Amino acid sequence: MVTRAEAAAATRSALVRAASELLDEGGPEAVTLRAVGARAGVSRGAPYGHFEDKAHLLTQLAVDAWSSLADDVEQLRAEPGATPSTRLERALVKLIEVGRRRPHLYALMFSTPADNPEAVEAASRVENLFLAIVGGLVGEPDARRYGALLMSSAHGIAGLELSGHLAKEKWQVGGDELVHMLVSAIRSGTGTAP
Q1: Which of 18, 85, 100, 186 pairs with 47 at a CA distance of 20 to 30 A?
Q2: How far is CA 75 from the centre of its chain?
Q3: Over 80: is that where the pLDDT of 194 sits?
Q4: Considering just the CA atoms, what is the radius of gyration of the chain in Å?
């Protein structure tokens, strides 16, 4: 016998999954509470019982994306035998890969209002894990400066890839190689071992 709470959690999960699919297929414009409910196979009013409005649902998608990325970065941070440079490169590429695989979700992650406590907490978790990885390469006192440089560079790489302006034929370099070059330059500049 399924409890009421379990049924509500299953419905909410189905709504989030449906919204995620619609976002991937057509961007934020495709995500309406009516379309999400229809995709999830629930009653017309069900989405309104779980989400105040479309913005609330989209924010949930962004929060979930930040949380998933944080889980990935946390695994990278704990990866045995990986060098600080390797961890850092992999963390940056993880962020860029979200843009590559799910461009609408990636854009949503960076457009969610910064005053939403859930979104701030989820994004902060990624940032803190990322800064710990950066600190492992450059030292804790310089982690924030280098972290800002690396994060903004990764965001720029993702944006250029998404817009088609980072064509390998033109620049003779791809996004992953740029990440490697950037981390190598920072490692060399700080005199840290590979």
Answers
A1: 100
A2: 15
A3: no
A4: 19
Q: Are 57 and 13 in contact (CB under 8 A)?
A: no
| Cα dist from 25 to 31, 105, 147, whole Å | 9, 11, 32
**Predicted confidence (pLDDT) per residue in 125-173, tens digit:** 999 999 999 999 999 999 999 999 999 999 999 999 999 999 889 999 9
Q: Report yes or no: 73 and 59 within 8 Å, Cβ to Cβ.
A: no
Q: In terms of C-beta density within 10 A (0-12 exposed, 13-18 middle, 19 or more buried), how is residue 68 classed?
A: middle
Question: For the CA atoms of 55, 58, 64, 70, what is the dihedral angle to 10 degrees?
Answer: -90
pTM: 0.89
Check if the beta carbon of residue 168 is closer than 8 Å to that of residue 159.
no
Rounded Cα distance between 29 and 24, Å, is 11
Average pLDDT, the chain: 93
Contact partners, residue 194, CB within 8 Å, separation at least 6: 83, 85, 187
Give the DSSP H/E element, type plus range, for residue 174: none
